From TrEMBL:
It comes from the Archaea. The keyword Membrane applies. The chain crosses the membrane at residues 21-39. Residues 279-320, 426-453 are annotated as: Disordered. Keywords: Membrane, Transmembrane, Transmembrane helix. The lineage of its organism: Archaea, Methanobacteriati, Methanobacteriota, Stenosarchaea group, Halobacteria. This is CARDB domain-containing protein. It comes from Halovivax ruber (strain DSM 18193 / JCM 13892 / XH-70).
């Protein structure tokens, strides 16, 4: 690979620009200067912009002791991807952002890493929040993968991960047993990982933990302690489609994963699940979890790349004011926008440049840029393009934003890329909204199982909140014409989001097929569906004697071979008993489980009595559903 370099080059690192290493990888590279957002000073910092071409992968390998920092990758082209690998000692990846969905490529993750021996590797102020191009778990990738050979300490600080179709942080393999592994620790601190497919954070070695992190949302698991003893410290874990899987312990696939233990302290989580009876979860939730981004954690690729190492990405602004910036792609032309605000608006210049290296300043296009006050409200807008942007200082709530070319322009609030809806929500004061839309539970039945009588019927419910406030309340499952309540749960759904919930109950073992309505209800909505429950399966185990060792001498063992056939329609478990004599004395038994249309063969027996004369008597075998018998002879001793 063109960027892989050896130890012989280490002495030259001070003299050779890092840009030299980054060339020749199918990427266009540029340098961007900006004013550090945490200050109004004129001290500028610099980062490299690397645009990866469609279908190509930017590859880079870190050496021992190397720091890779201040890089903004643009992988918005289809199939463009980044492959960073750090597998030595005392390396650092810092101030790196990836803009656009990372192509799935052939590698397992965007960053693949391990740390040697007693050394420490650091990943800090990194943004991996635009996800990957995969649309299913089988075709996706992780943001960060820690390989089994990891034996040192890996620290992740102020890392933002979201939208990956595999595990967000996949760091359990250093504790694996199926491959050679070295048990290195992984510490995740002040970071955010959300809405990744398999799990958001997956750890698996003693001493590994997540601390002061928000682990939020996704279809499967939030925090997954796969092997050994891992910890969740002062974290919020929630927003999962299945709230009970916010924290998951272990996995049946390996004997070692069946011994995993997770301990949660000073953390808030919606639920915890152990996969095996041998797994253990320790801890209680410290209240309802809430979504937040830890201080210093970048929420855009640009914010990560331009950081000065402090994690302070927000500009210094007058109290109550916001910096609103409309920024364009280099190919944008005459991209228009407008917005409304409750308070005064003025043109300004952002204390940083756009990712293209161009200025972000409002009022420069005199013919199009405008600010006006209408009936006490403020209305502003303009036109820009070519990688430039327009900026405004806004005092008060922003109430509406319209962008004509959303594929060519995005909007930033205080230096952070945000959706218009997020900006309206973050700058608004709910108490000042004369017509807030209350949160509500809009419920719909997504899936219903079709059990036999006596089996569990499960109903998967989608719960959507279209309102502006969090909706919390009961969701109930009712069955039958008389709407008998058989299940329910208390569910909290954030504004503009949805959750799934599975409710169910054990059906009655009906003797014939039946249909009846099932209904899910919230305080705001209801949905109903007709379900079918098939007749309960028949359990029937018929015994037959297929052989014996009779006649036998007195005192010898009498053995009877038995065939127990399942003539019913469901798997059946029953006891087969051996009875002897006219009084049917039980002398042996065995319990068997037999599938439908199958049979079990077994041998039952006992030691005969040492009689003096020849005797003949009946021997029978019985189950709950039938019996069979034969006469046997025992020769006396005389």
């Amino acid at each position: 690979m063109s960027d892989q370099h050896t130890k012989s080059q280490e002495s030259e690192k001070e003299q050779i620009s890092r840009r030299k290493y980054l060339m020749g990888t199918g990427a266009a590279i540029g340098s961007t200067s900006f004013l550090a957002l945490g200050s109004r000073s004129v001290v500028a910092a610099e980062y490299d912009l690397i645009e990866v071409n469609s279908g190509e992968t930017f590859e880079y390998r870190l050496d021992n002791g190397e720091t890779f920092e201040n890089v903004l990758f643009d992988v918005s082209a289809t199939g463009a991807s980044v492959d960073l690998r750090a597998t030595g000692s005392d390396w650092t990846i810092r101030n790196v952002g990836i803009r656009g969905e990372d192509g799935t490529g052939n590698q397992d993750a965007t960053i693949i890493c391990a740390v040697d021996g007693t050394s420490t590797g650091i990943i800090e102020n990194v943004y991996l929040g635009d996800g990957d191009e995969g649309r299913a778990h089988t075709e996706g990738r992780s943001a960060i993968f820690v390989v089994p050979s990891h034996s040192g300490t890996l620290e992740l600080r102020n890392v933002y991960i979201e939208g990956h179709t595999d595990n967000g942080l996949y760091a359990s393999d250093p504790g694996h047993t199926a491959v050679p592994s070295n048990g290195g620790e992984v510490h995740v601190i002040d970071s955010y990982s959300g809405n990744n497919t398999a799990s958001n954070i997956r750890l698996g070695t003693d001493g590994s933990y997540a601390e002061n992190c928000c682990i939020w949302g996704g279809p499967h698991r939030g925090f997954w302690g796969y092997f050994e003893h891992t910890e969740v410290r002062n974290c919020h874990v929630g927003g999962m489609d299945n709230p009970d899987r916010a924290i998951e312990v272990g996995e049946p696939a390996y004997s070692k994963s069946g011994q995993a233990v997770v301990k949660a302290t000073e953390s808030s989580f919606s639920g915890a699940r152990v996969r095996e009876s041998t797994n253990e979860f320790i801890g209680d939730s410290n209240g309802t979890p809430e979504r937040y981004v830890p201080d210093g954690c970048p929420t855009s690729a640009e914010a990560a790349a331009r950081a000065d190492g402090t994690g302070d990405d927000e500009p210094s602004l007058p109290d109550g004011s916001s910096l609103l910036a409309f920024v364009t792609e280099p190919d944008a032309s005459l991209a228009g926008y407008e917005f409304y605000a409750d308070g005064p608006v003025e043109f300004t210049e952002a204390p940083y440049d756009s990712p293209s290296g161009d200025s972000i300043e409002g009022g420069t296009f005199v013919a199009e840029d405008f600010i006006e006050e209408v009936d006490g409200a403020w209305h502003a807008g303009g036109v820009t393009g070519g990688g430039f942007g327009d900026a405004f200082l806004v005092d008060g709530a922003i109430t509406d934003i319209q962008i004509d070319q959303p594929d060519m322009m995005w909007v930033e609030l205080d230096g952070q890329a945000r959706s218009p809806e997020e900006i309206i929500r973050e700058t608004g004061d709910e108490d000042d909204d004369p017509n807030p839309v209350e949160g509500s539970h809009q419920v719909s039945i997504a899936e219903v199982t079709e059990p036999r009588g006596g089996e569990r019927l499960d109903v998967t419910v989608r719960i959507e909140n279209p309102g502006d406030e969090t909706a919390e309340g009961d969701v109930s499952l009712l069955v039958g014409e008389d709407s008998q309540e058989v299940g329910g749960d208390v569910v909290a759904v954030e504004p503009g989001t949805a959750k799934t919930l599975t409710l169910g109950y054990e059906t009655y073992p009906v003797k014939q097929d039946v249909e009846f309505p099932v209904r899910v209800e919230s305080a705001d909505d209801a949905d109903e569906r007709t379900v079918a429950v098939a007749a309960a399966g028949e359990e029937r185990l018929e015994p037959a004697i297929v052989d014996s060792n009779a006649p036998v001498d007195a005192g010898a063992a009498l053995e009877v071979a038995v065939r127990a056939e399942n003539t019913g329609t469901v798997e059946t478990t029953d006891t087969v008993r051996l009875l002897v004599g006219s009084d049917a004395q039980e002398v042996d038994s065995a319990t068997v489980t037999v599938a439908p249309d199958d049979a079990a063969t077994l041998t039952l027996g006992y030691a005969t009595y040492p009689v003096r004369q020849d005797v003949e008597f009946p021997v029978s075998v019985e189950t709950s559903d039938g019996a069979a018998s034969i006469d046997v002879t025992v020769y006396g001793r005389n």
